[in-house]
Specification:
The chain is α+β, with helices and mostly antiparallel strands. It is 26% helix and 30% strand.
């Protein structure tokens, strides 16, 4: 099969690393021929994943296409899908998810628990919603990795919201945030990975570290798994999905949002599970049996982020010390430039002892820094 990936960042890179195990010819479309995935595919095509003509030309002649980011030209994908190219996820699902307003309405239509919300189309509309606060304002389109999210705690904060279509989401009294990866094959069969606990950097609003499996009561876990499976079944598309959920102080579970692709919250599966999220997506696309999602060992992940005050060619401080630790696995994404908060890699830790996972992830966060070379 000839399979294309729209986007050449770290997700494309790790997909291609898994593709090496399968009989597949890989193609990547990206506007930077020095991107992390460029040198790992069979065929690299320089172009804009948001441009209709670039995406359409790229997809013609391929058997299937998948994405590593939602901000792709879905009109071109729709045309390709009509011509018989398989798209993972399908275009209807991609359009539902890439617009957060439509995504929230999808949850409401299908009785999937999510935070109460109001759709606003301008700042003037938002300013009339002071009775709904405290809430979180999220761009309907274009938000990514913590960008496009504004906390609106009081009426004084309303002026900080977005003057374009957005979702005003009632703030939940969050006890913890978890994620569940789910795979769906072409026959609609599903495979669910163990839930993960996620801890976010409050300044960057990015995933800082995570531990799998999540520490949940049996009843909360069952509820979360049932909700995640309902989400992916109602989406009615083959592919792999990351369902992010909130758990409140009373043990109620709410869907935060869904990503229709491989995801940061599933990176630990490369070493921590029998079939990684990347391996699983290839199984779906190539129509092979779904893989085994069970954990080999409990796992933690630490994201490697660019240090504040550093922009330029990356230098990795503490790398040797981290690699001396037992059962620690380094993933550097090959990005040529670091900048504050940019995802430059991740570290996976495996251990049967949860305290050991916690100790090591704390130590790695202190040791490992992405800085620039002194002359810069």
């Amino acid at each position: 099969m000839k399979v294309g990936i729209l986007g050449g960042g770290q997700l494309g890179r790790m997909l291609l690393q898994a593709a090496a195990n399968y009989p597949v010819e890989t193609f990547v479309l990206e506007n930077d021929d020095d991107c992390p995935a460029a040198h790992l595919c069979h065929h690299f095509v320089k172009g804009d994943i948001r441009n209709y003509d670039d995406v359409y030309r790229f997809g013609r002649g391929l058997d299937a296409i998948t994405i590593e980011i939602e901000s792709v030209n879905d009109d071109a994908l729709s045309a390709l899908e009509a011509e018989g190219v398989k798209v993972y996820p399908n275009v209807k699902t991609l359009r539902t998810i890439k617009d957060k307003a439509e995504q929230k309405q999808f949850y409401a239509r299908h009785d999937i628990p999510t935070a109460e919300f109001i759709i606003t189309r301008s700042l003037e509309e938002l300013k009339k919603q002071d009775a709904f606060l405290p809430a979180v304002h999220k761009l309907a389109k274009g938000g990514y990795d913590g960008r496009g999210v504004q906390i609106i705690s009081s009426a004084d904060d309303l002026k900080l919201g977005f003057d374009v279509p957005a979702v005003l989401e009632k703030k939940i009294n969050i006890h913890k945030e978890i994620a569940l990866m789910a795979a769906v094959n072409n026959e609609g069969q599903t495979a669910l990975y163990p839930a993960v606990d996620m801890v976010f950097d409050p300044q960057l609003n990015l995933l800082d570290y995570q531990i799998s499996p999540a520490e949940l009561t049996e009843s909360v876990l069952w509820k979360a798994e049932a909700i995640a499976l309902k989400v992916v079944k109602e989406l009615s598309s083959p592919g792999i999905f990351a369902v992010e959920l909130f758990i409140d102080k009373l043990g109620e579970v709410y869907v935060n949002e869904t990503a229709p692709r491989v995801h940061n919250s599933g990176h630990h599966t490369i070493e921590g599970n029998y079939s990684s999220q990347f391996d699983m997506l290839w199984r779906v696309i190539l129509n092979y049996p779904l893989g085994n999602t069970e954990s080999i060992l409990p796992a933690a992940i630490v994201n490697i982020l660019g240090e504040t005050g550093h922009q330029g060619s990356p230098r990795y401080e503490g790398l040797e010390e981290v690699l001396q630790m037992d059962n620690v696995f380094m993933h550097i994404y090959g990005k040529k430039e670091t900048r504050p908060g940019r995802k430059m890699g991740h570290v996976t830790i495996l251990s049967a002892d949860r305290l050991d996972l916690t100790y090591k992830q704390n130590r790695i966060r202190k040791l490992l820094k992405v800085v620039t070379h002194p002359e810069e």
